[in-house]
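Continuing the batch. This is chain 6 of the set; chains 1 through 5 are on the previous pages. Same settings as before, nothing changed between runs. Recording input and output for traceability.
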Amino acid sequence: MEESQIIHFDELVERCKRGDHSAFTLLYSRHAKEVYNSIHRLVSHTGESEDLLQESFIAAFQQIGKFEYRNTFAAWIKRIALNKAISHLRKKNWVLGEVEQLPETGEGERYDEEEFSFKVDAVKSAIAQLPNGYRTVVLLHLIEGLTQEEVAKMMGISHNTVRTQYHRAKLSLLKTLKKGGQHE
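Output for chain 6:
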């Protein structure tokens, strides 16, 4: 992001801190689509994703006075949204931290990752077929760019569990993609 864009976003945040409602609207219009997409990747239900988007921005605007520029507003609102999405899934009794068993690869069986060049739709489909815990770890780590430590903290599970789920998810994805997109 260019320096001038950062200054512009900071000016909007400062205007929001002073109660300028038009600045709230501008920040929302600039970030809503990206935040919605992040929520929807986890929740996968349009109505619930839209509700969580609204709740996330309401929470951000209520707490805007606490925003301290440790990161960009975009990163801050996205973190709020991802936490809301995970809380929502927990309320639905969806266990995020479970280590689900997938078929293990055979002894010595290896996948050459560079041999695969898949279309985006095939990868999205394969990710959607992963068990809940695996899918959440992959989406937060690979797609949202959070570190494994951040994922562990956000999900309330150990770093080892995240690392294990990520490794198993990666093997499962490669196996699914190698078989033409069909999960076992």
